[in-house]
Design a protein that fits this description.
The complex is a heterodimer of chains A (111) and B (114). Chain A is mainly β. In chain A, 0% of the residues lie in helices and 55% in strands. Chain B is globular and about 40 Å long. The chains are: A mainly beta (111), B mainly beta (114).
Chain lengths: 111, 114
């Protein structure tokens, strides 16, 4: 969707390095979701952010939502091979029961 | 609980053929969704349902029909398949009050139309 832009489209990092994926919205959103997809499989929910300035962490993954609720970042610390996959952000814009997804970021981890 | 299941996992169709993809969930979820995923295009919403007997159009509904006769099942139909419908199809469901709830995804159906 053009309403959500993810960057970068693809990322290759050395194991142990930190990385950041960004998700930018063209308008204010009500909820921001991060999902991970292993290659060839379905999506797994990671985190959901609702409030401006909110930050959540799960293991080595941290997600933040800016104060204006138009930009989110996903940060992985000390990356591992298990972090490889496609990361997608999704947004709920209109409280109308559906989520619009970005195009995803492909993450490769080099051993 | 099986979660969200999809049938079939793989399918090859010839142009003009029809088929139905079945999505089933055992979590008593009100909301169900059909997405397609294409390289470089991310995940796009085809149709969705907010409850038994209801359906609504998503971002890319043309060429598809859906039905939600039972709460646990959401069917996606292709009446006359076209090569442009070659894709991986994902079904998802979420609980009542879908806003801010996580969606549970099925494993996907890989469809090729020749």
């Amino acid at each position: 969707s053009q309403e959500l832009e993810q960057s970068p489209q693809s990322l290759i990092v050395q194991e142990g390095k930190n990385l950041t994926i960004n998700c930018t919205s063209s308008k204010t959103l009500y909820g921001l979701y991060w999902y991970k997809q292993k290659y060839g499989e379905g999506l797994i929910f990671l985190m959901m952010l609702q409030k401006g300035g909110e930050e959540k962490s799960h293991e080595k993954i941290t997600a933040k939502l800016d104060e204006k609720k138009q930009q989110s970042s996903l940060h992985i610390t000390a990356s591992q091979p298990s972090h490889a996959g496609i990361y997608l952000c999704g947004a709920d814009f209109l409280r109308d029961d559906k989520i619009i997804f970005g195009k995803g970021t492909r993450l490769h981890i080099l051993p | 609980n099986a979660g969200v299941t999809q049938t079939p996992k793989f399918r090859v169709l010839k142009t003009g053929q029809s088929m139905t993809l079945l999505c089933a969930q055992d979590m008593n979820h009100e909301y169900m969704y059909w997405y397609r995923q294409d390289p470089g295009m991310g995940l796009r919403l085809i149709h969705y349902s907010v409850g038994e007997g209801t359906t609504a159009k998503g971002e890319v509904p043309d060429g598809y029909n859906v039905s939600r006769l039972k709460k646990q099942n959401f069917l996606l139909g292709l009446e006359s398949a076209a090569p442009s419908q070659t894709s991986v199809y994902f079904c998802a469901s979420t609980g009542t009050g879908a806003i801010f709830y996580e969606q549970y995804f099925g494993p996907g159906t890989r469809l090729t139309v020749t």
